[in-house]
Amino acid sequence: MEKRRYSPQVSNRKVTASLLFLFILCLYYASVQCQESGKVTPPSPSTPTQSKNGLKRILISIFLGVLTGLIGAIIFAFVVRLLVRYMKRTPILKGPVIFSPKITPKSLQSALENENQLLGSSSNGKYYRTALDNGLTIAVKEVRAV
User: Fold this and answer.
1) Whether the predicted pLDDT of 1 surpasses 70
2) Based on the domain organization, do 15 and 82 belong to the same domain?
3) Are 82 and 11 in contact (CB under 8 A)?
4) Alpha carbon distance 84, 6 (integer Å)
5) Which of 16-25, 39-48, 53-62, 78-87 has the lowest mean pLDDT?
6) Residues 89-95: contacts with CB under 8 Å, at least 24 apart
7) Are residues 77 and 110 in the same domain?
8) Domain limits at 111?
9) Are 23 and 76 contained in the same domain?
10) Does position 25 have pLDDT exceeding 60, yes or no?
11) Which of 42-46, 58-62, 99-103, 107-111 is predicted least confidently?
């Protein structure tokens, strides 16, 4: 079964688009509020309905502030989660990966003549651990001729 790789680019586009939409919406709302507050109204005597409207506005403002804070915290946690996943993912290696240096047959022969440690054996041959002249420790398989 083939596993699907995590693709943060698609998620980042969605998050960026959502944040851009919210930013534009806030700017539009702020410009509408500025236009409404620019209108001059004559002062009127305070009535009980105005104080109720003022209390409603305060409660709505508090609710919207809490809602905005929660949405911001959720978006921030989501972005941090994406970053952590991106940092922890294993890199995809492309092309051949060579882990060992070139070993000349002469250096290998001299290393095998020295003291070797038997690691194990199988029906195909024995496995030895030996050290090269440059200090590199390698495992060598001795193949039996059939």
Assistant:
1) no
2) yes
3) yes
4) 12
5) 39-48
6) 89/6
7) no
8) 105-143
9) yes
10) yes
11) 42-46
Q: Is 34 exposed, middle or buried (0-12, 13-18, 19+ CB in 10 A)?
A: exposed
Q: Is the CB of residue 113 less than 8 Å from the CB of residue 101?
A: no
pTM of the model: 0.33
Number of domains in the chain: 2
Mean pLDDT along residues 108-122:
79
Are residues 81 and 119 both part of a single domain? no
> Is 99 part of any domain?
no
Residues 6+ apart with CB under 8 A from 85: 6, 8
DSSP state string for 31-77 = HHHHHHHTS--------HHHHHHHHHHHHHHHHHHHHHHHHHHHHHH
Both 122 and 77 in one domain: the answer is no
Q: Based on the domain organization, do 83 and 129 belong to the same domain? A: no
Least confident of 4-8, 75-79, 111-115: 4-8
Query: Does residue 31 sit within a domain?
Result: yes
Whether residue 64 is contained in a domain is answered as: yes
Do the beta carbons of residue 128 and residue 112 sit within 8 Å? Answer: yes
Same domain? For 21 and 59 the reply is: yes
